[in-house]
Amino acid sequence: MANHASGFSENIVIALNTVYTMWLREMLRFKRSKSRIIGSLATPMFFLVILGTAFNSSFEMRSGGQTNIGFLAPGIIGMTILFSSLIGGVSIIWDREFGFLKEILIAPVPRFFVALGKALGGVTTAMIQGTLIMLIAFVIGVEYQSYLGMAASVGVMLLIGLGFIGLGIALASQIESHEGFQMIMTFITMPVLLLSGAFFRIGDLPSWLKTLVYLDPLTYGIMALRYTLMGETETEIPIHICIAVLFLFAATTIGLGGYMFQKAKV
Amino acid sequence: MNTPAIETFNLTRRFDDIVAVDNINIRINYGELFGLLGPNGAGKTTLINMLSTMITPSNGSAKVWGADITKQPSEVRKNIGMVFQGTTLDDRLTGKENLDLHGRLYGLPKQLRKQRIADVLELVELVDKADVIVKTYSGGMMRRLEIARGLMHHPKVLFLDEPTLGLDPQTRNHIWDYIRQLNKEKNVTILLTTHYMEEADHLCNRIAIIDFGQVKALDTPENLKNALGGDVIILTVETRELASRLLDLYNKNGSAGSVQQKDSSIFIAIKDGAGQIPHVLKIASDASINVLSVDLHRPTLDDVFLSYTGRAIREEETSSVDRITYNLQARRR
């Protein structure tokens, strides 16, 4: 048992090495499944192009604000991050199914950092996809406020991604079969997405719905994306509150995910 | 050193009402190639999973390379290599990438990792497949890669759970060669589970026969077979009547061993069966009984297993000859 000073730094090296190894694995897999990644961009693309065009021509809000493709783009980016990071976390179910989980669990490394590395790998994938959607939207005519804002939005994507991948890992550590996977996708992604204000302004909602919207962590993510990409006038929640909520959400679910993964059975 | 490579102390594991491993006490020495032999569901995998810290015991304890499996699991993990029953490779990555990730998880520095990857690929003859995606490997190649991966970090003890399950005979022989080589040349202590008799017989220095979670017998394959009390001569003549007559004559002659008849064959359980055949044939020819065939059955591990557990390891494979052979041998003990 390492309980002296050199043992401590040795443990840090092991922890970092574990995180890096797991991240590297996700990146190698990502590299191998380019076609799948491109395919997964199709859904947000449909939303962006079809819904964006429809919004441009037919919506006029009671409050007077416009909902156009520029309003929609941060919502679609948030949706991409949500799907990609949840699937990234839940992919532990596949690792269990195909046996690789055993190889990880028998290695002499702390499981918490295994989960963290897996999370960072999945989040990197999600951020790449989110950034691609951001750029595609830019190409098809969405006007962002600044390049700096675009760069900052990638940081927001990281926070959103960490939050949901942590949730995915926590759930996957409990679910023993892939049948549960569909359940998660239906009962988590849809309410989280639809309540998030990705597709509508949250100012004029009836109070019961507003409460649910404010309970949805993705709301703050999309609000922060809108802030960084489109500017302050487009947001209904102050940015520092959004960032604080996202931080708290990410820290909580990553902690929970790491804890649940430690308890995971093969 | 006096301490063994693996030692268990009343090691027990329960799943709900089932006792999968029941108070097992075994000692495995340094450099030994030790086999756990038993039918499916006997508790072999549960035992090996406890020793490799994948599951915790319900009772009792064990030490692997001097480290306690429940109190010092990461010490145990550093010293062991494990090849699981099913595949645990990442099939979207190449063979080399799988080995590289493993090396990283076990903290091997870059140069050493490169060296070890080359070494283990060479050992299992997968050098030319190193950069191919694992998904396209055959079952035998995957198993070889798993063994290679288990060796990456120079484990002191290697666990092999059914290493040749589902492989064709040629690949099986190949893998046996690797296992022997590892044990002899690299001096790796190996604990393997199997339900293949020949595998245990050909490979292992010592065998523990496991049934219903308990050790029924533990010794070298030779000693286990010798303990059964010799060979069985099977003599077939033309008719049932002739067989009965031969049996009477044999007994009247005051010959050694015990005899039993089934249809037109007689079974003689005896030490040094080969040396006794001329004696039996002489009795037959003196009585002008035409002998159609003579067969000498040396005890196999199957017989050993049958005698300790009262059933064949795979029930459907027990022929009537085996059963009679067994009954005779059992009577002699």
Tell me about this structure.
The complex is a heterodimer of chains A (266) and B (333). With 266 residues, chain A is an all-alpha fold. Chain A has one domain (5-263). Chain A contains twelve helices and no strands. Chain A is globular, with a radius of gyration of 19 Å. By secondary structure, chain B is α/β, with parallel strands linked by helices. Chain B folds into two domains: 6-219, P-loop containing nucleotide triphosphate hydrolases (Rossmann fold, 3-Layer(aba) Sandwich), CATH 3.40.50; 226-332, Alpha-Beta Plaits, CATH 3.30.70.120. Chain B has helices at 44-51, 73-79, 95-105, 110-123, 139-151, 169-185, 197-203, 221-226, 240-252, 273-286, 301-309, 320-332; strands spanning 6-15, 18-24, 27-28, 33-37, 59-64, 67-68, 80-83, 157-161, 189-194, 206-211, 214-219, 231-237, 258-262, 265-270, 291-297. In chain B, the strands form three sheets. A six-stranded mixed β-sheet of chain B has the order 7-8-9-4-10-11, sandwiched between helices. In chain B, strands 1, 2, 3, 5 and 6 form a five-stranded antiparallel β-sheet that branches. In chain B, strands 13-14-12-15 form a four-stranded antiparallel β-sheet, sandwiched between helices. The longest helix of chain B is centred in the middle third of the chain and has 17 residues, at 169-185. The relative contact order of chain B is 0.12. Chain A binds chain B through residues 1, 14, 17-18, 20-21, 24-25, 28-29, 32-33, 98-109, 266, and chain B through 52-55, 72, 74, 77-78, 82, 84, 86-93, 97, 101-102, 104-107, 133, 149.
